[in-house]
Prior knowledge:
The complex is a heterodimer. By secondary structure, chain A is of the alpha+beta class. Chain A has 15 helices and 11 strands. In chain A, the strands form 2 sheets. Chain A has a 6-stranded mixed sheet, with helices on both faces. Chain A is globular, with a radius of gyration of 23 Å. By secondary structure, chain B is an alpha+beta fold. In chain B, the strands form 3 sheets. In chain B, strands 1-2-3-9-4-8-7 form a 7-stranded mixed sheet, with helices on both faces. In chain B, about 40% of the residues lie in helices and about 25% in strands.
Amino acid sequence: MTRLFAALALLMTTTVATQAAEVTTFTLDNGMEVVVIEDHRAPVVVHMVWYKVGSADEPEGTSGIAHFLEHLLFKGTDVLAPGEFSATVAANGGSDNAFTSYDYTAYFQRIAADRLELMMQMESNRMNNLAITAEDVATERDVILEERNQRTENSAGALANEQFRAAQFQNHRYGVPIIGWKHEMEQLDMADALDFYDLYYSPNNAVLVVAGDVNPDEVRDLAEAYYGVIPAEDQLPERIRPEEPPHRAERRITYTDPRVSQPYLIRSYLAPERDPGAQQEAAALVYLAELLGGSSFTSDLGQALQFDTQTAVYTNASYQASSLDDTTFNLAIVPAEGITLSQAEAAMDAVIAEFMTAEIDPARIDSIRTQLRASEVYALDDVSGLARRYGAALTQSLTIADVQAWPDILQSVTEDDIKSVAEKIFNRDSAVTGWVVSNQEEAR
Amino acid sequence: MRRILIALCLMVGGTTAWAEIDIQEVTSAGGINAWVVEEPSIPFIALEIRFRGSASLDLPGKRGATNLMMGLLEEGAGDMTAQEFQTAREALAASFGFRAFDDTLSISAEFLTENQDEALALLGQALIAPTFTQDALDRVRAQVLVGIAGDEKDPDTIASATFDAAAFGDHPYGSAIDGTVESLNALTREDLVTAHQNALTRDRLVVSVVGDVTADQVGPMLDTLLGALPAEGPALPDDVAFGLEGGITVVDYDTPQSVAYFGHAGIKRDDADFFAAYIINHVLGAGGFESRLMNEVREKRGLTYGIGTYLVPKFHAEMILGTVASSNATIGEAIAVTRDEWRRMAEEGMTAQELEVAKTYLTGEYPLRFDGNSEIAKIMAGMQMIDLPPSYVVNRNDFINAVTLDDINRVAAELLRPDDLHFVVVGKPEGLESTQ
């Protein structure tokens, strides 16, 4: 489905970087960063422009405006009629789309490599020359409301997640859904969209990523010709967002919805993310997630709850390392038949307690290290994935050096690193525990 | 060994770029055929194995057996428990996928060149010597039951399941491959052993291998991996007629947005008019933002986030299907517009310009699909499943370009029958009621 927005996992599951691909970077005079990734196996290019603005940068009361604006960018400019952008891409045998997350908004095309100039011509045009009508705004607002219906209102699990995140983040806008709260989406108007656009869509707030069968010098010439002539935005504010205060009390939520087919529980803890020059804790958390709940066969939760006992039919631990601000470490359990949520939660907490006191099997750490190293080999086969890796990192405050150091940092994680980061994050005062049930009877 | 050097021609707006995919056809000493593409630049190998038949071979009363069997292949094999098997796989950093579909079993593997022998030996154990222990059976069955319970409350799945049941009745296409709570709970270890023997047979096997490997290595590799499988499987089911008449079926469900799943009988993949139908479907509803339905239902009216149509030529039946979701208050209008567009294309066809734009897109997009070892392996396996030759990769765009406007308008009138459209609507749709 198009105009997708990147909910949690979509873009950030592949967070490991590679050094084997030929990567060239430079900055245009107006401040626009450029990353060129060469892959000459096929005459194809991926052209992406990432803006360093996402839903967590929205003004209060206008939740969803970042994503709504992303939709409106396909409507028209001073020289492109509504729909002409995508139609032109298609008429050249390519495909295009865009996505919005908490920290970024990105537009991309995938097309024959000799069409790169046309893509740059159109994408640079819509950076500054959007021309939309009141009718465009009204119709497209109906579309995003139907999108919210489809993704969220029609899904008990998605509604529950929205409640959990709202409880997890007490001050930061990571607690507000990317697509927006429905009552605020209904009020979004042209002025909201254009104010956001005029301020944030500018070359000094953007990253260009070009990946595929291209030559860096040619990309530089084209980028200077099309993007380099756009003036920098001198009013661009420094990107400072509200931080979380110290969390002083555990939060517990029960979400009840008759559309829930199977009770389950989640627990999320506030956790550090990859920071520029300081990615060690995030790397250790990648291991912690794997060790606790990466594989239902070999992880601690899987072994204890699905093999040694029949407490759960599903267990998982996950961690989003890529984020501009504090992120979360998440656990999820689907209890087996006859097991209550209280029993499942107690079993989960017993596994965490056991993990904190027991030694970690060195063979498990070696296995995870091997898999992370191999994932770099597999990643080379997916040039679009490499492009997303750089685009996401650079819009989340990391540097090229951070991206390229990340695989080695992952390889260097020790048992002590894992234990000490676990000690730090497993603080129930910063956690949300959520039960998802179809009726009160199940909430026990 | 036959070798066919295939130059993928990427032609866009008068300019041409070339990419070469060198497909080699290999037959092992044991008689297993495979398509191989050598791509030594990255040190790993993608392997795609498929078997015709799959869940359509479920025996009477044993619905769900093939799907559950596939879920159990990674849950213990040879002298290894499930955990020992997975520990070994993780240590090799190999990935194995085992999936069952209506007509196709798919086994997808990716493994590093440096430990390919160990990875293949491990995969071979899963394919040849799965243990199907009772505890694994119970564990995976519980997981499938959770999935079935979820399907029963998911509007999209309720819609497609209702449609399939009405269209195909007792034929395997009429029910979900997961089985029912009842059929699943009745399955025994014996049933899984039988499903394994019936579904993984060499007479219905296709293989493709792409990556850091030479064609010479592939034959011995496949004999070791697959040579011990049974030679033949039981008969496939008969073809089945699409048995649903035009109309509307409303399934009452308390949710804010109604989901509609719709369609009627379609066209066979080997029909001479398939490519005309393919282009018609693209312009009508499969072409994303460029499609008429997306334009009318979403862009002009804001009635939905997405609408799409699909040609679905299965092995034993063929359909043209679509999906759309809209608020309970507006789904009626979305359906009316959809039916009108169906009729407009059937009666008026498309313009020469629409055909030209569609051809440019479809021929330009085709080479972009070949963008990774696994993708190429999957495309080649899919081609073999429907008996296409390697040269199809070269000729496919010619088939698209050969379609004339006359073909389009003739086939549109035959293919699209607005009065035969049946809509299954799940939700609380305002102003819609089931027809008789």
